[in-house]
Amino acid sequence: MLVALFAGDGIGPEIMAEARRVLDALGLDGLTYEEGLVGGAAYKAKGHPLPPETLDIARRADAILFGAVGDYDCDALERHLRPEQAILGLRKELTLFSNLRPAKVFPQLADASALKQEVASAIDLLIVRELNGDVYFGEKGIRTTADGLREGYDIMSYNEAEVRRIAHSAFRAAQVRRKKLCSVDKANVLETSQLWRDVVTEVAADYPDVELSHMYVDNAAMQLVRNPGQFDVIVTGNLFGDILSDQASMCVGSIGMLASASLDANGKGLYEPIHGSAPDIAGQGKANPLATILSAAMMLRYSLGRPEAADRIEAAVAKALESGARSPDLGGAMTTREMGDAVLAVL
Amino acid sequence: MLVALFAGDGIGPEIMAEARRVLDALGLDGLTYEEGLVGGAAYKAKGHPLPPETLDIARRADAILFGAVGDYDCDALERHLRPEQAILGLRKELTLFSNLRPAKVFPQLADASALKQEVASAIDLLIVRELNGDVYFGEKGIRTTADGLREGYDIMSYNEAEVRRIAHSAFRAAQVRRKKLCSVDKANVLETSQLWRDVVTEVAADYPDVELSHMYVDNAAMQLVRNPGQFDVIVTGNLFGDILSDQASMCVGSIGMLASASLDANGKGLYEPIHGSAPDIAGQGKANPLATILSAAMMLRYSLGRPEAADRIEAAVAKALESGARSPDLGGAMTTREMGDAVLAVL
Ligand SMILES: CC(C)[C@H](C(=O)O)[C@@H](O)C(=O)O
Ligand SMILES: CC(C)[C@H](C(=O)O)[C@@H](O)C(=O)O
């Protein structure tokens, strides 16, 4: 099976290197790797954040391990040339519509959250975010109003097939968890949300064992602070999912620890840490590679059919934390490489 | 001067009654009051959530004190008849474009937040939310795609005049605070946000004493959990403001305590507690009236030119809290009326 490795910008190469060392240490046979350029790095080398040769590797691959994209040098470029287009393009081109972001406190890091310990330690939720639609991919631009004013616009939309597809993903995820699904929208204001709510409710008929509720996004943002332990699975659109999943991650406290999967309908997926490219600390060995290493574990489990290897990585990360491995974001002083070493030592 | 009192649904009438008692106790002369129906209550009596007679009072008034709208009975109505249309309609018809939502921990309630006390007690921020544009008021509907699928859509947009107007509000607010303004958008994905960012940056030239920064909304949702003390004034659009201002309120902990103002260009305003109509506890005397009482104080300060009266109310609320006044949401057992009594006792 082919694994694409796209390190990207900023701290991407450093954290990817550690994930690769961990994958190699597992001694799995039948896996081959191909590297590709994405983001600002790809723009600088090839003139595009997602060059054709990278997209070609991605199409051929069974799974993609992704570092991070984002580079201040590219902020002034036209939108279609900015680093973010690499990740948006991969999601769209490969129909990776289902973004799974588990958030759970690591017992070893129970005090890392800004939330009170009893509130944070109750967090065990999964956000299922739709990635192929919404205001992200609708028609957009700058136009001139009748009065001659500049006006920016973006069309938000979802059709019933798009909502149904992600709703099924979410209900299935809830079935193997605590069987509670909360769909988040803004149906009191948005027609897109009203359709979303109607279709999710229709799909619920296929999953009588899952308890479905609906919540407005403003309330969800409050409840994720007040009592995040109330949630099992949350399903929501691309824009609200972007906001709420980052919020939920921060409630856990250790954003350098959280992995995510973006899946198509056949189990092919892209795996990435939820943190960004952190250009301010790039190249200094300060980045925590554990989120990327845990993303590799998710990849082995969901796309590569190697759940035992995934278990081994996750257990090794837990042991490394127990033995005191801490990068600066976790209040320690270990380098990126030393964090990787700590995991390898257990493996 | 004329004050409109719109109590609305759910707990609206109970909390409004206490605010009215407080206003009366101040013995201010020159103020007259007119009550009007809004929300589900107005729909049931008049067939519309914002009947013409209510809108007429609102237009004539110098300020509006608003309770809350929202009623489960109305959930199945067509969108234009739902209770929320009362508040959306007032904002739009009266051009109340600038929503000010201060969030600050009450020292007497320092432990109320789900955030660690040292994180929560650092909160002293003001969210300035645009209320007249964005995806709230663009064209919207349900259409059929070429493949015969139902599709919901909503157009998000801002023109430069709308952004400039709210940016000036926000810069002026920052000038009388700690002189830091953070503009929140999603310019890496949305053209509406790109225009927003460009125009806010242009307006900044008029306020060299204010330090302007920009932040993506997903990062802002994280930072409001991680370190909300870093913010002074946040300015953002209608949709992001809806989400972030509720999140920030919950970070403070005592959502039953927070007031808000929605202002037009001339200082006329609508004042309301940030909590909702809470139909589940309506009529039981369990609601905390302090957010409405504090909204009345904001009204006296910003629209009615009576800052001393505002100070008196705010001091009385602080004293009442000090003397132990606690409604159920604050961990106590006092009724709505008893909370009002506690404030009146100090006045
Ligand atoms: C980089 C950006 C376009 C992206 C998004 O908004 O989806 C990121 O925030 C994410 O959540 O993966
Ligand atoms: C009731 C609803 C339409 C409203 C909004 O979304 O603006 C509310 O959430 C608010 O923030 O005042």
Automatic annotation (TrEMBL), chains A, B:
<dbReference type="GO" id="GO:0009098">
    <property type="term" value="P:L-leucine biosynthetic process"/>
</dbReference>
<protein>
    <recommendedName>
        <fullName>3-isopropylmalate dehydrogenase</fullName>
        <ecNumber>1.1.1.85</ecNumber>
    </recommendedName>
</protein>
<keyword id="KW-0963">Cytoplasm</keyword>
<feature type="binding site">
    <location>
        <position position="246"/>
    </location>
    <ligand>
        <name>Mg(2+)</name>
    </ligand>
</feature>
<feature type="binding site">
    <location>
        <position position="218"/>
    </location>
    <ligand>
        <name>substrate</name>
    </ligand>
</feature>
<dbReference type="GO" id="GO:0000287">
    <property type="term" value="F:magnesium ion binding"/>
</dbReference>
<comment type="function">
    <text>Catalyzes the oxidation of 3-carboxy-2-hydroxy-4-methylpentanoate (3-isopropylmalate) to 3-carboxy-4-methyl-2-oxopentanoate. The product decarboxylates to 4-methyl-2 oxopentanoate.</text>
</comment>
<feature type="domain" description="Isopropylmalate dehydrogenase-like">
    <location>
        <begin position="2"/>
        <end position="343"/>
    </location>
</feature>
<keyword id="KW-0464">Manganese</keyword>
<feature type="binding site">
    <location>
        <position position="101"/>
    </location>
    <ligand>
        <name>substrate</name>
    </ligand>
</feature>
<feature type="site" description="Important for catalysis">
    <location>
        <position position="186"/>
    </location>
</feature>
<dbReference type="Pfam" id="PF00180">
    <property type="entry name" value="Iso_dh"/>
</dbReference>
<keyword id="KW-0460">Magnesium</keyword>
<keyword id="KW-0100">Branched-chain amino acid biosynthesis</keyword>
<feature type="binding site">
    <location>
        <position position="129"/>
    </location>
    <ligand>
        <name>substrate</name>
    </ligand>
</feature>
<feature type="binding site">
    <location>
        <position position="242"/>
    </location>
    <ligand>
        <name>Mg(2+)</name>
    </ligand>
</feature>
<keyword id="KW-0479">Metal-binding</keyword>
<feature type="site" description="Important for catalysis">
    <location>
        <position position="136"/>
    </location>
</feature>
<comment type="subunit">
    <text>Homodimer.</text>
</comment>
<feature type="binding site">
    <location>
        <position position="91"/>
    </location>
    <ligand>
        <name>substrate</name>
    </ligand>
</feature>
<feature type="binding site">
    <location>
        <begin position="276"/>
        <end position="288"/>
    </location>
    <ligand>
        <name>NAD(+)</name>
    </ligand>
</feature>
<feature type="binding site">
    <location>
        <position position="218"/>
    </location>
    <ligand>
        <name>Mg(2+)</name>
    </ligand>
</feature>
<keyword id="KW-0560">Oxidoreductase</keyword>
<keyword id="KW-0432">Leucine biosynthesis</keyword>
<comment type="similarity">
    <text>Belongs to the isocitrate and isopropylmalate dehydrogenases family. LeuB type 1 subfamily.</text>
</comment>
<dbReference type="GO" id="GO:0051287">
    <property type="term" value="F:NAD binding"/>
</dbReference>
<dbReference type="InterPro" id="IPR024084">
    <property type="entry name" value="IsoPropMal-DH-like_dom"/>
</dbReference>
<comment type="pathway">
    <text>Amino-acid biosynthesis; L-leucine biosynthesis; L-leucine from 3-methyl-2-oxobutanoate: step 3/4.</text>
</comment>
<keyword id="KW-0028">Amino-acid biosynthesis</keyword>
<dbReference type="GO" id="GO:0005829">
    <property type="term" value="C:cytosol"/>
</dbReference>
<dbReference type="InterPro" id="IPR004429">
    <property type="entry name" value="Isopropylmalate_DH"/>
</dbReference>
<dbReference type="GO" id="GO:0003862">
    <property type="term" value="F:3-isopropylmalate dehydrogenase activity"/>
</dbReference>
<dbReference type="InterPro" id="IPR019818">
    <property type="entry name" value="IsoCit/isopropylmalate_DH_CS"/>
</dbReference>
<keyword id="KW-0520">NAD</keyword>
